[in-house]
Amino acid sequence: MKILTLHVVLTLYLLTDVVAGKFHLFMPQWTHQDKRYSHFSERERLLMKDKAKQMFQNGYDNYIKYAFPQDELNPVDCKGRGPDYGNPSNININDVLGDYILTLVDTLDTLAIMNNASEFKKAVQLVIEYASFDKNNTVQVFEATIRIIGGLLSAHLLIKEPSQPFGDLVPAHYEDELLHLAHDLAARLLPSFEGTSTGIPYPRVNLQNGVPLNSSNSTCTAGAGTLILEMGVLSHLLGDPVYKARAKRALKSLWSYRSNVTGLFGNVINIQTGAWEGGMSGVGAGLDSFFEYLLKAYILFGDAEMLKMFNESYESIKFHLRRGRNHCNKGDGLPPIYVNVNMRNGETVNNWIDSLQAAWPGVQVLNGDIEEAICSHAIFYAIWRRFDALPERYNWHLKAPEILFYPLRPELVESTYLLYQATKNPFYLHVGKEILDSINQYAKVKCGYATIHDVTKKDHEDRMESFFLSETCKYLYLCEKVGHKRTYFLPIKSNYLSQIEHSIGLP
Description:
The chain is mainly α and 507 residues long. It is 49% helix and 10% strand. It has helices at 5-19, 32-37, 42-67, 91-94, 102-113, 117-130, 141-160, 177-189, 221-225, 228-238, 242-256, 288-301, 304-320, 360-366, 370-387, 411-423, 427-442, 466-477, 494-504, and strands at 72-74, 79-81, 138-140, 204-206, 218-220, 268-270, 276-278, 280-281, 322-323, 337-338, 341-342, 352-354, 393-395, 400-403, 444-445, 448-449, 451-454, 459-461. The strands form 8 sheets. A 3-stranded antiparallel β-sheet has the order 5-6-7. Strands 12-13-14 form a 3-stranded antiparallel β-sheet, with no helix packed on it.
């Protein structure tokens, strides 16, 4: 799942205060793989940082030139993209695009983090001038919250930060307009929480008219349970508890419907009855950010109840979903992997993992479970090495992708960044460089970077989603200074790394 600047701030805090000292190196001898990965010079790091900035700038400049004020850029045809008014049922587009300059709003914090203060201030003025939510458009509550409200609040907090660590980000005559916009949108989303017997929100809302008459009563766990950070911060800034209260009520309601046998959640629930319509439990699509937000709600708000819920969920996940040997870096058996199971009995229900699950290693880092994160990450890195991209779904039994496209998602990049911050092992800088080089080689088109339609063929779909600029480029850019005072071995033993690679189909 995508993570906004609020998450970056939390990450930097947690890594310096919690994770320190909880990882260790495992390698007893030097191998050819150590020689490949053990060093990453300051010159290489700066070059990588510059390439990531250039990648972002290319996409951003083309969005401004060819797409603004529309929501997204079509980088092949060099045109803008907005809602699909001709086909209201096209939720792949209409859930995300609300005709509210999505890419610009979602990207504000990345401009700041890349120290482009002048463009940040220009972009804020454009948002103030052009952004409006008084539109007869039906959008997904989850997407509007994490991308738009999250983007607006992140930029507002950066402007109001007294120390201004990224340069002078305060636009002339700024009067909290971004906060007011976030408030306006959140108020339009509130009807989604009304009229449900469970307190779990409707998945979609019309920005002018509230919940549509034909709205579905089915929602995914992540969609309903990934609102607490943005709504909680908004409540704090406004001094109005209602937004956080609605989001927390939804979380606690979902919690009450978990299996009393396994402690697991399904992936789709009926918001009126609380019945699980999808009984698959996993850490990928449909559930991923639910667990992430439980942990981060504790980090941001100090909410011990959220931490207790996360810890209990984490134990259930490791007990029922984890397969393979007991330890990442010792013992015999297959590599550890988290599979999809039946929420009621923990039995494996399919043989695939999906690209959103690549965020799970990052959650494990934030939880201080570094060794587990190392092995979880290694599986997705091996898939990337095989395809120079991450297919949306990969069958680990058949060693083949099942859903072939890659929309330039940030999850693997974010986990790579978090593991580097936690371990300072240059292995993860090499991983980041490989990801950056692959995207430049296979996704770059005339006016930006395009979704890879088929990872085995490297053909394109004409779409550049906002999270590519707001997250993928950002995490590739965010690397700290490389240390040189100790010898680095692989974070995972070379024989185990080779085992994982072979299990994915690499020679």
